Records
---
Amino acid sequence: MTAVEQAIQKLKDNGYKYTDKRENMLLLFASENRYLTAKEVQLSLKEKYPNLSYDTIYRNLYTFVEMSILEETELNGEKMFRFGCLHAGHHHHFICTVCGKTKEIHMCPMNFFEEQLTGCEIESHRFEIFGKCEVCAAL
């Protein structure tokens, strides 16, 4: 079963109806394999769905995040979304600020922070590094 099929099944299991718009949004994320803004989603689907509103896209993106289908991050005050990471194990990401592509970071800096926060209970964490990937940096 593909990631898109799994996502559609997860939506159905949680009471959401299948729509071709939702499927096409998910297919876009699967094919791009990078972080996308809601605006990029709208522009990519505009030809097929000229009346698809920004609000509808945003509402669906947040539904996908709530269902743990998509991950979200923020860059320069703008929310960005991508398919939830399918890689096994604990890791973090480098995110290109130009093209949105990501790379896994296999080292976790939490040991350092845990030493600095004695007595605190850390419930979760997220570590992302932003910059230009080697392709964008060479331009």
---
Amino acid sequence: MASKTFVCFVYLLCFISSVSVASEYTPLDNFIVKAKSVTKSVSGTSVVLIKGGQITHEVHVGMANVEKQIPVDTNSVYYFASTTKAIMGLATLQAEKEGLLSKDSTLRQLFPNVKFSYINPDNYSVRDLLSHRSGLTNDAMTWTFSYTGNHDKKQRLHFVSSLKPHPKIKKGEFGYTNLGYNLLAIWFDENYEGGCPTRLKS
């Protein structure tokens, strides 16, 4: 079954490579095809290039459902996972450029109306949050943000107020976590219309 799946996958890659109509993107398409072939990855991969607000090129390779042999296409839904960290990092840089925060802004400055129960918010900066070195934890918050999306403003601010020092990772030590980016997402939601960095709330 696995060998048949891989053969079908290779045929699919060859087909996509041969029908590419945008010659300037052929090297990109070939790279994607080769990478998928070398790694023997049958999972779906979609690459979309946007210029001036318009889609200039897209390629979809692999399977959305391996068991049912359903290939990915323009309607396939992906779980973004930690890809959002890069987006949040860029949004934070944009906010810094606009003078709305800096890498040295503290949690108290980000959330002046929140009463922190377990930490001194003056000791934690945006730099700590972005570099995974805050030494903070809140499992309920990270799990809710990562997997359910079921939260409102009151609950989000409660998450902020109930941050605690991590029992094993000290401030300044690296400990990979979603928490810092979740906190910045809450700050954006509090300060921007729809959480969008281009629309500051009045």
